[in-house]
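Hey, I'm writing a tutorial for new members on how sequence and structure tokens pair up, and I'd like a real worked example in the thread rather than a made-up one. If someone can provide the structure for the chain below, I'll link this post from the tutorial.
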Amino acid sequence: MDPGPPLRDIGCFALVARHLSFSRAAAEMGVSQPAASQAVGRLERVLGVRLFERTSREVRLSPAGKALLPYAETLLESATAFSAEARRLAAPAGAVVRLAYPPLVGGLAARVARRMARRDPPAEVDLRPAGRAASLAAVAAGEVTAAILASPFPRDLTTAARFHVPVSHLAVPAGDPLAALPRLQPERLARHRVLVPRERPPGGMWARLAARVGPQRQHVVAEEIDDYAAALDLVAAGVGLLPTPSLLVASVRRDDVAFVPLDAGDLRLTYALAWRGERQGEGTPAGLMALAQTVQECLWTR
């Protein structure tokens, strides 16, 4: 049986159709604009039709796109209903799910908790903000059901619901000459200190960025940079410049810090829901399946 195109690509099509903008749809999905364009392109190739008419100024639904959009919306609604019923069956009433998460994705964690509370039967989510090291320790000790972690992911953990947060800007002190630039390239940072964590796992965003900046311009401020609000205090004090995720730029307003677009290619943080795989003699933690499905739903919708 042909499973058809991926639901995520169909969901991307529906979001672009709603906004008539690839950039706004990408921001809502938490992916880059090229990734959203690629998702729609894949869908068009699978279906054999053009869904949008694109010009340099606007995006419009094609006749085929207009005809297929109601079917896409119905399919997404059915998938949501399917997941909701699966959640209801996956966790017993009164289950308590303990979720560790980095403060940067606190908005997502809050949406997950609200949606889990509306389940039938409802499930309580105990939210525990924590850095990467603390989250890994809590998962290993069984103190939390799961954690939202940044890549790279330990091999002994099972992951699901991966998503990306672009690192799109550089935080600089307000009034600094760099704040007046329309865009920055990493090469322009040769005379500036860049705030980085000491812990930079190979393959992760911080390791890639550090390689481009060079060791002579790295200023280690902590084992990890999970508390971006505190790191912005260091920027305001003139300690160094901070590569900043798009989520923070969209939610933080400070008079003493400016955010300058950073032209560093596909620089992004990758997150996923992670938990211990089943061990011999152990069952799946109560509510874990429902939690994974809920996180995925919250990534699809707002």
